[in-house]
Protein 1
Amino acid sequence: MESSSQTVISAQNGDRVLVIMAKAPRPGAVKTRLVPSLPLEAVTAFYRCLLDDTLALAQSLGVEVAIMCPDSDVKELAQLAGRGATVVAQKGTGLAAGLTSVFAHFARDSQRRIIAFNSDSPHLPPSVLEEAFETLAAHDVVVGPTYDGGYYLVGAKGSHPTLFTGDGMGTSSALERLLSGARALKLSVGFVERFYDVDVADDLIRLAAELHLAPTKAPRTARWLKEWEVLAAQLRTGTGEL
């Protein structure tokens, strides 16, 4: 039988849900904007490391963890996640449909705090995610902006089907469109620290430098980047092969 303290902890965890927006790590399906900088197979392997470390980050918070993904990816991601996360198929296609599905699926009442964030965010400090949950306690919506005009994190305490639109998702106008939607719905919005996600070569270089100094933030990704740097150097000198 659970002790009273365990019951309280379980109830608290059930009130906080962290959802990773992910795809199965298949060639040509993930991180396609990195392909000009890395071979396709390398991009896929890199994304697998990002996803593994992001899942570990989410699990470290002691909250309910889930993965939202396209229906075709559920089986593969369930195998990757094991018992560490519930994998849920989104309704519809695209990121807007995925985010709408997150809050439609997990919102039970106005007290449940739900946060969705990118699967390429293993370098995100756990304190930012904790702050997002705290911010959501006092606001209808919480947002984590990126430097390029998008956002890496969004949370809410209920389902708002019109909050996300297909137009502009993944572009420099994504954040402004989200905030415009929140204003139209008269939702209060709180913010957490601006951060970067890993979309293009400059992001990759920035991440590699960060993890070189602090590899324990994302150990699988740090190890992959270190191995890739060695291989890339060998390729430049003609002593290595893919």
Protein 2
Amino acid sequence: MRKFAFLALPTALSLLAGCSSIPAYERPAPPIAAQWSQPINLAGVRPVSELSWQQFLPEARLHALIATALEHNRDLRIAIARVEEARALYGIARAERLPTLNLGASDSVSRTPGDLSMTGQPLTARRYDVNVAVTSFELDFWGRVKSLNEAARASYLATEEAQEVFRISLISDVANAYFTLLEMEKRSELARATVETRKETRHLLQRRRDVGLAGDLDFFAADGAYESARAELANLERSRAAAENALALLVGSVPKSLPAAQNLTEQGVVPDLAIDVPSEVLLRRPDVRAAEARLIAANANIGAARAAFLPRIGISLALGSASKSLSGLFEGGSGAWSFVPALALPLFDAGRSQANVDLAEARKVIAVADYEKTIQQAFREVADLLTARDQLAQQLNAQEAGEAAQNQRLRIVEARYKAGASSYLEVLDAQRDSFSAQQATVQVRRALLSAAVQLYKALGGGQATQTDKAA
């Protein structure tokens, strides 16, 4: 029992120690308005914190792409590895607060010359030792080790939040890339149909010109419209290939079999997200939480720097058995122990300790500014996306009405041209306007879906599912 009490001495002292030198932490007041800066429709029924990405993005094909990206994306792997790195560093810092026990065994032999021995004869001595030892354990009276441990813990939490930021961003980026690909495919489909229509019209006008029923002006107008549609199709195909490559890069490894795709109008993304006051919304974002964790780490490092001015107290002790022969190592009366306390008081270090305090305080100022800037950027991002959600919905409604009007105009002009009441130039103008309206409707519909996904991300992105965490 005496042995165990002796070994527990450093642990007991460490529990008594630990007066913190860390400045009292106060969260900076958010440098933003109490309400959103513009009149915004805040009506919503689904809280983001309770809405997983699978619920917000219901299409099965998109589910498969996002799940694959969460498993194979290389940048996400790096982010996960950095979390593991920070966790290990925190474990190392936490271990410094407790003593390390070592089991040691040694055999030493020494010879003393005759002129140095008390008997005048050469002396050979041998010693065997077995002990349990604590070496150079610091008693953290001033909280230096505790401050370093707190800084490491906050850094780990900041890294973990940074991983969550990347996870949400990856989900958002895959969804946006997928919607862009659907947009390019739909616009290419419209352009391809337009090319075929104009090709047929060009061929018809060529035959009419050959028999004298149409002039060169109509034929060359139709020919120019056909070549313009071909050029637009080539441009859209190039954009579609680029969107496909961007999606493949994000996903990392495109699955061999995927569920059938749905078009943009069938995605089922409903941007009916519940919106709270800015201070509540923004403090739920992982990037804001990461910035605050970095601020807490910087604040803790000030405590560690301040503690460097104070005495550092350490102890080394060993408890075991010693004997001049191996056979007598564990006999009665062979017990041995040592206890070596040490105190180091800094007297002169050429200003190094003060410079470390100044450095820690400067880094805290940087961390405060970074935290405030992160909140301001988040406020602007959410406000912009809330406005975009409302305005894009109105724009899409107007665009669909405009497209219907242009299509009706085209039908009327084509009927008048067949009846001989309109020129072919009017038909070309109506075709161009109808094609432009169709393309613009697809673009606005994709922009509305992208804005909804970006708003979901800006509000915090919901909670990770067990599958996400396993990936």
